[in-house]
Amino acid sequence: MALAILNINYELGKSIYAHGILYKKREPFLNSLELRKNVFQHIKLNAEEKGIWLDCVNGYQDHAHCLISLGRDQTISKVAQMIKGESSYWINKEKLTTEKFIWQDDYWVVGVSESHIGAVRNYIHNQEQHHSKQTFSSEINTFIKKYGWDLIEEN
């Protein structure tokens, strides 16, 4: 599962921030801290090569969080596709997991006010500590109840 904060810049100099989640499909997960650091570093470097400004990236075993600023010609779906597709390809090519690694097709996005960006950045940087206390599934279930979201499960 990957989480993205997206800053969409418009000509008038205003920004719209969005908080998105891209789901990890199934095992194998990014089970070690060393593996996660390696994958997240690769995601950051690859995004830079593709012209995507990625402020920070971090995560836990089954998801990654990104703070991203979209360029004028970039869309949320294209950036998510690039991050998921290229990182899956790279993880599998480098044989970093024992089984084929796949991010889930779907993702979720919600707006975030500019005043909350610092808190979101801290949240991204503190994933190891955060998920030592609460599982990602538990956190998602809390959000589903709190915001009245519909959960669509894959078969």
How does this structure look, described?
- With 155 residues, the chain is an alpha+beta fold.
- It has a single domain (2-147), classed as Transposase IS200-like (Alpha-Beta Plaits, 2-Layer Sandwich), CATH 3.30.70.
- It has 5 helices and 5 strands; from the N terminus they run ββαββαβααα.
- The chain has helices at residues 33-49, 76-93, 117-125, 127-133, 136-147, and strands spanning 2-9, 15-24, 53-60, 63-70, 103-112.
- The protein has a 5-stranded mixed β-sheet, with helices on both faces.
- Strand 3 (53-60) and strand 4 (63-70) form a beta hairpin.
- It is globular, with a radius of gyration of 15 Å.
Distance between the termini: 17 Å
Order of adjacent strands in the largest pleated sheet: 3-4-1-2-5
SSE string, helices as H and strands as E: EEHEEHEHHH
CATH fold topology = Alpha-Beta Plaits
Shape category:
globular
Report the uncertain regions: 10-14
Total of helices: 5
Mean pLDDT: 79
Number of strands: 5
Full CATH superfamily name = Transposase IS200-like
The biggest sheet, with number of strands, parallel, antiparallel or mixed sense and barrel status, is:
5 strands, mixed
Rg computed from alpha carbons, rounded to a whole number of angstroms: 15 Å
Question: What share of the residues lie within helices?
Answer: 40-55%
Proportion of beta-strand residues: 25-35%
Strand-pairing-aware structural class? alpha+beta
Query: What's the CATH first level?
Result: Alpha Beta
